Structures are given as structure tokens and as C-alpha cells.
Structure prediction request, 968 residues.
Amino acid sequence: MSAVLAPRRLPGLRIDVAAQPALEALPRMDIAVFVGFASTGPLHLPVVIESVTQYAEVFGPDAPLAWDAERGERVFAHLGPALRAFFSNGGRRCWVIRVARTAEAVANRFAIPGVLEVGAGGYAVGAAIALARCEGSWSDALRVSCALSKQSIGVDGLMPGASPAGERYQLRTRARLRPGELLELGDPHAISAYAVVNKVRTTQSDTDGPYVVDITVCAAFDRLSAASPASWPLPASPARAEVAGHDAALASLEFSPDAELGALRLKFEEPMPPTLAPGAWARWSGGGETVWLRMDSIDVSLIDACADGPAWRELGPALPAGFGPVTQASVLTLELRVVDAAEQAFRLAGVGLTHGHPAAWWRQTTDAEHYRPRRETTPGEAPAITTAEGPRFPLAAAAPGAAQAWIPLGVEPLFGAALGPLPEGASALERDGLARFDRSLFLDPELAATGAGSLLEQADNIRFLRTSPREQLLGIHGALSVGRGGLFNEATLLAIPDAVHVGWERRDLPEPDEPKPEAGSLPAHWSRHRGACLQPSVPPKEPKPEDCATDWSDLCCPGTPAKATPASPAAEFEPDFGAFLDCATRELAKPTLFGPDVPVRAGRYRLTWSDGEPGATYVLREALRADFKDAREVFRGSGFEYVTTAQREGVYYYQVTAELGDERSEGSNAIFVVVREDEWVALPATEFAASGEAELLAVHRAALRLAAGSGELVAVLALPRHYRARDAVRYAERLRTVQAPSAGDPGTLSPGERRALSYGALYHPWIGARGAGALRVVPPDGFAAGVLAARASSRGAWIAPANEVLKDAVALTPPMHDADWPALQEVQINLVRQVPRGFLTMSADTLAHANDVDLRPINVRRLLILLRRLALRRGISYVFEPNGPQLRRAVQRGFTLLMTDLFQRGAFAGATAAESFRVVTDDTINTPRDADAGRFIVELRVAPSVPMRFLSVLLAQTGERLSVAEEL
Prediction:
């Protein structure tokens, strides 16, 4: 074996080329926060969005708000268009905060068809209820149905278990069950019990079974049989029943005429809600027992309303005495299907019916819980960021801890009836939490009047320090808590596109006239001679009473009219039985007509009527006048419903009649349907200056205070759509006014808050934009935020965001004349203009005070925000260093490298580094008294524009605390 020796190296020098230090990655300056109105999504909770598709999945379509009678169009929320403009103009990431009044916003409730719920705290059975995943009227059109999945397993023995023996049992099976499964025992068409699997164990080392399973019976039911009506629990007297949450008086309980269904029929003594639909539950008590009836067929007549369906009697949370031997059981899971107005279906399969199931229904959380940042699991770990991962299932668990199990008692293997939301009395806008439009929609009530200097301290007290902290700030103040936390938040831009609405009020429409149709004409044969004698070819015969129901005091003969009393008046709609009539002549039962009992929007709506005459043909008439003089026939057929379409607003009157042969019934009850675009109407623009402008000023001033207090944000603001040049100048002057709080407007910025004006920029006019399938006129703040973000990510935050063509912009409104431009620029409004190459802004100014002229360019303010972030990030590394000459040299060297990097990137205007920045750590700012107090200061002097004077940023360390301040 031989060894290979490495060659010996001669003594000498080795020269390596040191790699250039990597440029320090700058903090992101392209992330924005948008605050406004949306159809869906969590309220007052920031959600990170990185595409238009993600926004639509979380926050849905643009929310309709009110009807603008002046322009003849519907007013929509501006949040969606602002997001689309942001992304189309270069934005890549933003946070969205949906705002509304949480005390008024309501989520729709849905009864799951055929499913009962067993309460967790004591035995209590009720209809299973699910919630819409978030608040608002967006879910009004949803319909939910379900189907049952059964897996049969063999069971060997069923023995009582631990106490209480009536509920706990043990069984053996070779099927591999999991804790949390729901089992069905017995015959679902007779006596059935439902049990929860608690524990599964093997009796030997063989892991493939057999298994010993501990179960708890949570409910048992007895299917009522039509063959033994004597055993039916009769309702107590007075007979009452709960029908889909509606208390109703019962008239009778009987076997349904449809024997194949084996169903019962409930008859009611009062009208039922027209929104009642098949699949809902009816419950009544009698003889100390409770019975549930699944309403498969419903007649919601004004009189003698009834419902048919199978019924079950509750037997309690235990197996009944004499429960037969159990040799088989079924493992139950549920499949839910929700269909929206566009016929898009959402399906959720394999849903567990107990809390212990791995796929339990109660894992379907609301948006508020789903998007809430998770708590820290280890010290110092930042909360997780929840991003959108696709469309969520529209429904969520109502109360996760209130139910022990769902019992699919009346669910079939195939999808059955679909149910809509339970009725709510409030209007759509009220349930959206947007009925009252004012500043409180956008501001946290505890921070609305807080000045810029103390805002952060007060916010920290609310979230962390007081006895009962509130981690979630409301409205625009939620922008203080976005991102992963740390030294600074992610966002540097703030937009409030929906703050510029003029407001709305409930629409005041006159009450429709009550329908008063004229009595229909009687069939001609009801008041004339009619019978066999009218047929000459047939020999006359002696009439018999059983052949014709008429007066036989005189026999009729050919050509001889019968003696008859005068015909009844037309108002009395019945045959004239004083005349000789055919045996088939009779009065048909008039139908009962139903329609929407609340105003509906233009489009499709459904009319239904009762079936009073089997085999009859029904004729539906529509009129625009209450007296039906302009009525026209819109439907003729054997069906019992008709979907009509209204193209415009108005009051539409309807009446239906039944025809059978040559007989015709009296007209049904006449109804009217109110069709109107919105229940709320936008306020006139002429009234905005008197009341709405003060609300907008309050929101904009609060945004400036928030941006200045955080030191990290620039508020991108817009003006109302109708503002002409004179209105815009007046508003900008009011917004930029700085005076003592006791004088003028109570919310005016104080002299100590003067610097806050440089944290905001104002844009006008509005922009006609393409997107979402239609041309929409929207505020310009979304476009401006997109340009700011694109400039920061591509070239740097220190580059002025102007002279950039706006994408997807096609028009401007209102028009601004060339003569108005100087006045608008004088008050520092960034005017959107149309030039031959497109639409763009030719200025990029903040609202800075006249005494802060160096802070007027947006890029200067953005550069200072960037320097603040860099100073905090670099300064944190020196917190625990000893305060001495070595610290001064290290700080001087570190910040010089940092500022040199920015200089090389083009952040400063000087020709050389000495003309562009200075880093000061010497005795001129760090005195012996500062050293004794444990205080160290570094001053950064930069020239972001023409270096007429330096702007200073001070980083001060006192003990373990860092602070950043800027000086002019």
C-alpha cells in the first residue's frame, strides 16, 4: 500500500481579491393599505392581498350602496376599483380593511335542510343553523342543500358501558372507526338512535381488529307511522307549532292523502310566511313529547295553510326500552352544497357531524376567525400572515361550542330541497352596517380625536397596556397593525377611497295604491237557459233530478225557455241557479296568489299560487294600474308559479284566475310588487357642502394624524366627484389650515401638528376606468397609490411619482380647464391631466405647510420615511454596546456605509457624497451629560433635492429604547 504525498508549497505571498460587500436590501416602500366598503370579508381586520383575483375571492364583487337619482345610476363601493387601479398601475402587495358598523352588520342564518342539532350543555334538540361566513347582505341569494353519506359496518353485540348506562355503550366491530364518528343504530324508518364514537381500542395485538368501541348515544327518534295514528302525540291545547322559527297556531294533524309518502299533514289556522320553503322543520309538543316534521310539501295559502312530510318523535339521549339487537350500524357524514345567484355551486364533502371528527363541520370558521393573525407560539415569534387561498365555502359554524352533534334525521342520499336564509327584518344596507354614512365608519372611536403626537402611545395603551386590551383597532387606525410587526409595519401608503361618498338616506317612496280590480264578467252560460233541450237533434226526455242540479218545477221543451229568476249581479261571482243550467256548471275555487312582500330590484322575481282546482288552467294578468284597466295576460298554463321580469322601476299589479273547460273562477286576491333599484338614495351633491364636507375633513385630518403619528405612512387622498376647481381649492385650504383648536373648525390641525400635512397628498379629478366588465368613474387615489408603489419598487422611493401614464384610465370628470390649473397647484392639489400620450399627473406634492416648503415634494417625505426605517434597523444593532469612543466610530462607519449606498443608488441630489449627506456623532450633539444619562445620538443630514439646506434625521438611544426625529 503506498501513500501519495501532497506537494510541498514554497514560502511566499498569496493575494486574494475581497468580494464587494453586498448592497443592503432596502425596506419595501411599495405596500399600501386600502380602507373601504366591500361585499364580503372580515370587518376591521387587515388582510394581505397580492392580486385582483385574491381580492375578489376574499372581498367579493363591488358592494352596491344606493341609487343616484341625479345621474340615474347605482352607487357602488370604491374599494374594489381602487384595488384594481392599484394593481394595474404597478402595485404588487397591499392590505385591505373592510369597514362597517359591527354593532349593526348582520350575517345571514341558514337552516340546514333535514338536520337537527343536539346541544352540548344538556339535552336540547333544535334545527341545525349555519351562518354566512361574514356579515352583510351578499348571502341573500344563497341556497343550501345537503345529502347523506352512509357506510354500513357490522356490529357484534351492544352492551351498556359506564354510568350513566342509558347513554354509554360498548360494541365490537372489525371496521376501523375513528373517535368523533357519528353512528346510526336501528332502522331509520322505525326507531333509530345516533351515537358518538368516544374511544376505539383493540382486544389483542392484532391492529386490524376486532375493535372495542365506546360510544355515547346523543339522541333517539321514533318514525311516526301512518298505519297507527292512535300513537301520534297530539299537540297540546291551544295547539301551537314552531315552523322554521315562526310560531303558528295548529288546526289539525292528519294522515297525508299521498299514501306512498307515509307522511303527515299539518294544517294551520293562520297564514304562513311566503318565504317558507320545503325542507324546513316544524316542531310541536303533545303529551309530554316533542315531534319534528320535515315539510316536504307546503301550501302557504292565506287560509287553511298546510304542510306535508314525514315526522319523528323524540325519545331522548338514550336507547329506548326493548331496542332490538344491533347487528349493523352506519357511519354518517354529510355533503353540503350551496348555490349562489349566478348558479355557481360550492360543495363540501365528508363533513363530520360531531366536534371530535377530523373534518367536523365546526372547523368551518367565519372570515373574522379565518383571517385573524395567530397568536405567538414561542417568545418573540411574529404572528402569522393569513393569505387568500381560493374561494372559501360560503357558510360557517354558528357557535362552535354550543352543539354536541348534528343529527341528519331527515336527510336523503340525494340532494333534496334547498333553503335560503332565514328572514331578516332589516334592509340590505342596514345588514351591511352601512346605513349611516359618517366619519365613525372609518375611525376608531377611542382614537378619532387623538393628536398626532400622542396617537401611538394611546394606540399601544388600547392594544397592550390597559386592563382589558383590545388587539384590533378599528377603521383606518387598523393600519397601525399590519404585517409581521417588528421595528416598523409593512405599509407606507394609505388610501380611503370610500370616504368621498356624498352619503345616502332611505328612499321615500309613496305607498302603492291598493289593487282594486273590477269584478270579472260571468261566463255567458251562467245566466241563460242551458241543457239537453238546446240540442234539437236529441229527442226530449224527461229530466231527472240526478241529471241536472236546477229547479224542476217546470219541464223544459224544445224552443221553450225555462222560467228563471233574474240573473245575479256580476259582483256576486256565482252561477244563476234560478236558470236551467247544465249539470257540470259550478263555481270554481279561486286560487290564492303570492309574490314578494318586500321591494325587489329590476330583474326576475317569482309569483306562485295555490292549486284549488286540480287539472285547471291558470291565467295570470299583469297591470300597471291599480284598477287593472290596462291588464294584460302574461301566463297561461297548468303550473303554479311564474318567473316574470321587470325591466324598470314601478309598481306591478297581478291577479290569477283558474279555468276548467268553459268554466272560469273568480279572480284571486290581487297583489302588487314594488320594483325599485335601491332602498337607499344618494344625497344631492348640493347638500354636501353643508354637512358631508365636515365629515370628509374629519376623516382626512385623522388620516394625516395617523400617518404623522406612525412616521411611516403617506395618506393618498381624493376629493368628491362633483367638486369643480373652486370647490377643490376651498376644500384644500380648509384641510391645510393650521390654528388653535379653540378657533374655527374644532378638528383643525393644531400648530404642533403642522408637520402632519406633509404626510398627505391630494389628487383630483376622478377617472373613468376600465375594469370588472364595465366603465366605472372612480376616485384617483387607487391610481396614485399604484404609481407610488411602482416607482418605489423599480427606481426608489426618492423618485418623484409624476409624469407616469395611468393605465386603464379613459376619461376625467369633472373637466378642469387650463385656467384652473395654477390655482389648484397653488393649494398643492395633484391634478390628473390628459395629454396626447395619455392620462397622468404633472406634479407630486404633499399638503405641506408653507413654512415646510422642503417637505412639499412627495419623494422627499418618502425618502425621510425610508431613512427612518433604515435608521431603526441599523440602530438596533448598537443598543447594548458600551457608550464610548468605539461606539462612536462604529456608528459613524456603519451609517456612512449606509448613506453611501443610498447616494450611489441616486437617492440624494449632491454631486459628491459630502454634498449629499453627513453623519454626525461628535461632541457637538453627544455631550458628557448625554453620556451620563446613557444617551447616544446620531444625526443624519441629507440633501434630497437641490442642496440649499440639509434635512436632519436624529436617531437617539436611551437605555434600551430607540427614537427617531426629524428636523429642518
Notes: The longest strand covers residues 211-223. DSSP finds 13 helices and 47 strands in the chain.
